[in-house]
Write a structure and sequence with these properties.
alpha/beta; Nucleotidyltransferase, domain 5; binds 5'-O-[(R)-(carboxyoxy)(hydroxy)phosphoryl]adenosine; binds zinc ion
């Protein structure tokens, strides 16, 4: 340990990213390395679980060495091992979990098991070394356009939108995460990936569609939005939208008509984003939080970030909107180390017989 600072080594292997990070005091990123397997899975249009686990196994140890070196931290200086133990692919998760268990045992330091989705939320509390020593406490009222070293204050509403989950949550205070609603079928990211696959745009679909959409007209093709009934106002459903896009493609091909990819990407993206934004803003208006946190890979979406900011300014300008920088929205290990810090501070730790839990929820 460096004087009384807490150094946590985070490990994340739940899907197709092998990630290792070193984080100080749950907030300051000393290193954050992500080895993506996108190239390996792209030609299959999705993640192949066996390939993912094998690659994690090859990469994890060299990546730990590299993360420690970049952080200028020796293994003996690490105070705790944090690892995401679910949700995710079981074989992939097990690589991270067994690596973290072995290191915690060998170093005689606490093992801290982190829910991957809780990790995504904690990306909102991460800062770079430049912000060290000048973090400002939960500023109310304001939408920063860049990371200004401001710690979001609780209570918070958070939208967690990833490849496997779309959850709207209420966090009255740190560590108390209450589910307001979730998707009944496809996750938002999954919808992006499935539409990209149908359009032969490769995997993952989100970033490609985000880019293409920038050149298209979001109102060119009318597509459905599922707002659901009053009782389910915070739940989501994207499967109807997905079918509508697939039907549109099929009809156009049957008629031999040209499909404008940018217009289709923009119209599809707008349909997803509008529902995510409207439901999140309704939750904010109802719950009146101090901050609104965006999390998960889909939170990297440029249109989502733009529209959320615009709607928040119109409907609840006193609420502080925090969007992690795009590379902290997608899978990384710094968020896992950050989420583990409150557990460490409370003196909690996980047993060394920890197992992966592939269907863990929030
Ligand atoms: O959180 P994440 O990195 O991994 C999971 O926990 O699933 O999220 C990955 C998902 C993928 O479905 C990917 O297509 C989507 O996030 N994604 C995006 C963008 N970047 C990544 N979706 C929309 N726009 C983006 N810019
Ligand atoms: Zn994730």
């Amino acid at each position: 340990m460096l004087s009384n600072e807490t150094i946590i080594l985070g490990i994340e292997t739940s899907c197709d990213e092998t990630a290792v990070a070193v984080v100080k005091d749950g907030q300051i990123i000393l290193s954050n390395l992500v080895s993506s397997q996108e190239d390996l899975h792209a030609r299959f249009g999705g993640v192949v679980p066996e390939i993912a686990s094998r690659r994690h196994l090859e990469i994890i140890n060299p990546l730990i060495d590299a993360a420690l070196e970049e952080a200028e931290i020796k293994l003996e200086q690490v105070d705790a091992l944090a690892v995401s133990y679910g949700p995710g692919l079981v074989g992939a998760l097990l690589v991270g979990v067994s690596t973290a268990k072995s290191l915690a045992y060998a170093l005689k330091i606490p093992l801290l098991a982190v829910n991957h989705l809780e990790g995504h939320i904690y990306a909102n509390f991460l800062f770079s070394r430049e912000n060290e020593g000048q973090l400002k406490e939960g500023c109310k009222g304001g939408v920063p356009t860049h990371r200004a070293g401001i710690l979001p204050a609780y209570p918070s509403v958070a939208l967690v939108a990833s490849g496997g989950h779309t959850d709207l949550v209420w966090i009255p205070q740190e560590g108390d995460i209450q589910l307001l609603g979730q998707t009944r079928d496809d996750a938002a990211g999954e919808a992006f990936d499935k539409i990209a696959r149908a359009l032969d745009l490769g995997y993952p679909g989100g970033p490609v569609i985000d880019n293409l959409a920038g050149e298209g007209n979001p109102e060119a093709i009318p597509l459905p939005r599922a707002y659901l009934d009053k009782e389910s106002r915070f739940d989501f459903s994207f499967s109807g939208l997905k079918s509508a896009v697939l039907n549109y493609l099929h009809t156009m091909r049957e008629k031999g008509e040209q499909v404008s990819l940018p217009d289709l990407a923009a119209s599809f993206q707008f349909a997803v984003v509008e529902v995510l934004v409207e439901k999140t803003i309704s939750a904010v208006v109802e719950k009146q939080p101090a901050s609104l946190l965006l999390a998960g890979g889909v939170a990297a979406n440029s249109s989502l970030r733009y529209l959320m900011k615009q709607r928040l300014v119109e409907s609840a300008p006193e609420v502080f909107l925090n969007c992690p920088q795009p590379d902290l929205c997608t899978d990384n290990a710094a968020m896992i180390a950050a989420a583990a810090f409150p557990y460490f501070r409370r003196g909690e730790q996980s047993p060394l017989d920890l197992n992966a839990v592939p269907n863990l929820s929030l």
